[in-house]
Amino acid sequence: xPMTDEDYAFLRKLPLFRRLxxxxxxxxxxxxxxxxxxxxxxxxxxxxxxxxxxVVRRGKLAVELPLPDGVVRTVAKLGEGTVVGEACLVMPxxxxxxxxxxxxxxxxxxxxxxFATLRTARDPGAYKVIRNIALTLCDRLRDTNVRIQxxxxxxxxAEIERTARxxxxxxxxxxxxxxxxxxxxx
Length: 186
Known about the structure:
Elements: H1 5-12, H2 22-29, E1 32-37, E2 42-44, E3 49-50, E4 53-58, E5 61-66, E6 72-78, E7 83-84, H3 87-90, E8 93-94, E9 98-101, E10 105-110, H4 112-120, H5 124-153, E11 167-168, H6 174-181
Antiparallel strand pairs: 1-10, 2-9, 3-8, 4-7, 4-10, 5-6, 5-9, 6-11
């Protein structure tokens, strides 16, 4: 399914694609395909090999952590414009969490193999995307470190119910802080 002008306008607004020229975004878009996921459908399972990233176009995903005792913790609920699996574009590795559609969801799938081909060809857009991923991951790590420090010092921060990027978090302790990180732009 070819990209529409509306799709390009949507992508241009996302932190993952900031500072890309129109040509660079077109190059990155060549690695994408659209995917629909029905409510309850798994995008990927924890531990599964992965190299694709997913951008929520419409709908909502749950990012989950299955625990050894069978309990499944919802780490984040991701809405329109959020990205999951982006670290796999930098270095393919087993998935650290599970992603499941909560609603009828439309996604842009960034094919990891095709993205790697762009990277190998030294495509400037691919390197800008990698830079944006690195900034996002650094921001998440910094915030996690602060939250761990605050937790161990017994301090609590005010919780946010909904971020500007469509991530819902419940007002709780360390789990809600971790969920917040998935919506950070970096």
